[in-house]
Amino acid sequence: MHPTLTVLLYSTLAAGMAGLGVLPLLRRERVPGAWIGWAYALASGGMLGAAYLLSAVNSGSPVAMATGASLGVLFILFTHRATRASLVDRHRPDRYEPGDGYRSALIDTLHSASEGVAIGVAMALDLRLGIFLAMVMGVHNIPEATVLGAIVRDWPTRLGTVTGLVLAVNIAQVLLAVATFAVLGAAPAALVWLQGYAVGALLTLVLVELLPDAYRGAGATSIALVASVALSLVVLFGGAIR
Amino acid sequence: MTYHPALIVFVLGLATALATGLGALPFAFTRSVSPRIVAWSGALAAGLMLGASFGLLQQGVHHGAWQTIVGANLGVAFILATRYVIGDHEVTFGRQTGETAKQMLLIVVVMTVHSFAEGVAIGASFGGGRELALVITTAIAVHNIPEGIAISAVLRPRGTSVLGCAGWSVFSSLPQPLMAVPAYLFVETVKPALPYGIGFAAGAMVFMVLLELLPEAYEEAPGPATGAITALALIAMVLFQQYL
After folding, report:
1. What is the SS3 string spanning A79-100?
2. What is the pLDDT of residues A27-68, one digit of tens each?
3. How far is Cα A212 from Cα B214, in angstroms, rounded to an integer?
4. What ipTM does this complex have?
5. pTM of the entire predicted model
6. What angle do helix axes B5-21 and B162-172 make, rounded to 10 degrees?
7. Residues of B with CB under 8 A from a CB of A
8. A224: which chain B residues are within 8 Å (Cβ-Cβ)?
9. Distance in angstroms (rounded) separating the CA atoms of residues B111 and B153
């Protein structure tokens, strides 16, 4: 299979896995705050693992890597501020407001764009690593979609529409994965910059958005356990690949 | 003149413990430090610890992925067990809450127990080569300074002298040199134990960051700066290890 098609296939699969996140909403109208905490802890552990795998590959100048990583950190801080992400009280389903749905959809779309860059970079470093990372992102998309679905469902919205929305916000993941892979094919010198960007963006997503929300939803012990187990699984299977 | 490696491990472990005493320095100029500064120091320490753990995991996986992960889970179990033993107490920084004496004792006990895992990290990392060991030792030494600040932030407003704060801070890290030597001798003598030891240290440090350092930092200083400091420290640590 042509490498670009591989990127398209696996990033689409990762984005499609977000649809599974709607399943818990079949049985209950509202998701408990603790579930949201654990969902974000699972997503955080997976994402930390993805950043670990990407940062473990030494592909060039440390200055370029550091600059790229700083840009990644700055981009996420900028989007965090621009979308006023801290206004969404995700762990309190009883306090959802109609505007929270739009805001969360926008935030998740911006998240998935950076995640798409990470998939594209990983594919350019090593296709097997890229496929694994796409699957990690896919698993991470599931709890993220559950949280978005829970917020949107509260409007109330039909389950079919909710599923369509959680899939739509992840389209950016597919587009950016393919675009990044194509750019790196044409300009391999950009690899270390984009690798740095992906590491910086993923880490900042976890540390500025996902983990603080996770701790607000459930106790620190359970959050730490869920995130550690997710991280160790990614390290284990990622290590087996590399 | 050559020194026995175990002596070098002990001296470096002792140096990391002494670094904790530097945390008392700001209190020579002020009696209390704002909770936000303590929180950001904690966030910086969290990033350094996570970065050091990434380096340990990479080294451990090189020797055996499964063994490293088994070791990491043992590290998590160790921290859970110590938390069970010392109880699930909240320690607030720089604020007069709860019973003063109990709180002063508690912060020293909590930090001392934490140091056991860090001592194992220093010892096990020496089994993985001197470069890795120097990086991990440096990370733990730098991370000890905010721990010293945290201890002093509790002790100083309650009347302990600056020298006393420094002394208690160093005391809390004494398990580091004491645990580093047996951990080093163990992974050197029983070579197959190396990935388990490295994994144990990494698992314990990651879990400690997720269980205590980060939640406390987020609580005292909510807002994106806390997470950004951790992310930048983590990235700096990873790059430092890769390109040293």
Report:
1. HHHHCCHHHCCCCCHHHCCHHH
2. 776 777 788 889 889 989 999 999 999 998 877 788 999 999
3. 9
4. 0.90
5. 0.86
6. 140
7. 50, 54, 57-58, 61, 65-66, 68-69, 72-73, 76, 80, 83, 203, 206-207, 210-212, 214-215, 218, 222-224, 226-228, 230-232, 234-236, 238-239, 242-243
8. 207, 210-211
9. 13
